[in-house]
Structures are given as C-alpha cells and as structure tokens.
Amino acid sequence: MALAKWQQQAKDFLGLGDISPEVLTARYSADSHFITVMDTVVRVKESGHGEPLLLLHGFSASADTWDGWRAELSDKYRVIAIDVPPFAVTGPLKHGPTTSTAVVHFINAVAEKLGLNHFYLAGNSLGGFLAWNYTLRYPTKVKKLILVDSVGYYHRAPLPVVLMRTRGLRYLAAKVSPRPLIEHSIRSVYGDSRRMNANSITRYQDLLRRDGTRMAIADIMRGIYADSNEIKHIRTPTLILWGAKDSWIPPKHGYRFQQDIPNSTLISYDDLGHIPMEEDPRRTAADVRHFLIR
Q1: What is the CATH number of the domain that holds 234?
Q2: What is the predicted pLDDT for the residue at 4?
Q3: What does DSSP say about strands 33-37 and 40-47: parallel, antiparallel, or unpaired?
Q4: How many domains does the chain have?
Q5: Is the pTM of this model over 0.85?
C-alpha cells in the first residue's frame, strides 16, 4: 500500500500520464458550471448580473486566472470566464485539430450558447490573441476589447511554448510535465513571485495533464508568434494592459498595439508581470471598470 502511494506521488511529481476529464471535473467543479458546445463540454466560471464581460485565459492556464476580476467586477457586470480549448477541464475540440481559427469560431458558439449577442471581451496572452482575432471576425458582437499582455507580434517564444510545439520535443513534453518545471513557469509570469498562490502549482500541473491537452497544444500555437497586419484593422475601442516586468512577451508590444489600434489606451504596471489580472486583480479591475463605464 505504501509502495503504491509512493509510486503515485512520484508519478504526480513528474507529471506522468494524462488525467481524465471526469477526474478533473470532480476535482475542479467548485464555483463552476458546464455547457456543451459542438460536442465539447466547456467549464464556465460566472458571477454577477448586468452587461456581459467574457474572459479568455492564456497558454496552459484556466478560467481560474480571472477569479479576482470576477470578484471585483461582478457587482455591475455579468463576468464570465471559460476554460479555453485545448486547455484545462474543457480540453481539445472534439472535431478536427484545435487550431486558433477553430477556437475563435468555437468561442463564438460558446457566446451564442451563453446568450451573448453584444458583449465586452478580454483576453490575456494567447487569450488576447484569440480575443482580437475574434473581434476582427465578429466586430458587431464586441462592444469593447481588453488586451492583457497579448500575443500579437513576433518574439522569441518562452521555453514552455517551445517545448510543446517543437517537433520531437513536444512528444516528450506531451508525456512528462515535472512539477519543478511547472513551478518555474508560473513564477516566471509574476512580477513578484511572492504573490503566487502555492496551490496554483498543483492546479496548473493537473490541468495541463488533461487527457489530450498536451498533444493538442502544438495545433493552437502554430503561427501565432508572427507579426500580423490584421491588428491595424481593429476599430473597436480597446484597452491595453501590460505588466512592465513581463518576461514572456516584451512590454514594447503593448506600445505596438497602441500604435496599431486607432481607438486604444495603454496602461502599464511597473511592478507586475505577464498575468497582471491575477497578480493584482484589484488595481487592474479598477482600470477596467473605468474603461467600461466611460
């Protein structure tokens, strides 16, 4: 019995093997509800009433990264965070590869399922990439756009992304996700890692091991680090939030978004990193509230 327990602990430490969606649903269903869209079960975390604000998380994250914004903004808004495919409990799309284009159209199907016809949209990192692409393809649906340390221009991909999309390496990364590597990755997205919640390490590792997720990551990551001229076609009022200590995406990209999107405002936080909405939800949500009501 003791040997079996030790073996399981070693397996979990190394991140060996996948975890079924049923196990993850049971483990991470608190404060969540589930909807089925295009045969894919989507985990949703939702708070409040009023005008809807849809939130899209970044690479290898989950709807949980927006818990702070839900707490801060749900007094006035219907704040909705989803597990974006192929990540977290939702996992890969059921039909065809989980490419960024497929996910953008899937997000539209999720919005329709949730009854969202005209809403505010925010995205962090990869979620920002999906958010501005969604805005270009469904411009009449997005009232205002919020980009938080968003992907949009060429830069050297961070190590976790390189591991998951490089041929040869990605097959190893799809089988093994050691806890020290996960912890290092999480620490690297904070401006001050002392703000990190230790419990989030286990959550990130568990959700990365969702059945099928690690093999599907390469599909969504292909091509997103190239410069895009499409950004200049966005006409939706846009708020750009950026952590000046972002080590994943250069802070200068925030200024490029501001230059390329005509009706945009940039706010930079000197002490925050790549996920400022999680690192300091109160301050960042206050800036969002001001942007949405003006």
Answers
A1: 3.40.50.1820
A2: 62
A3: antiparallel
A4: 1
A5: yes
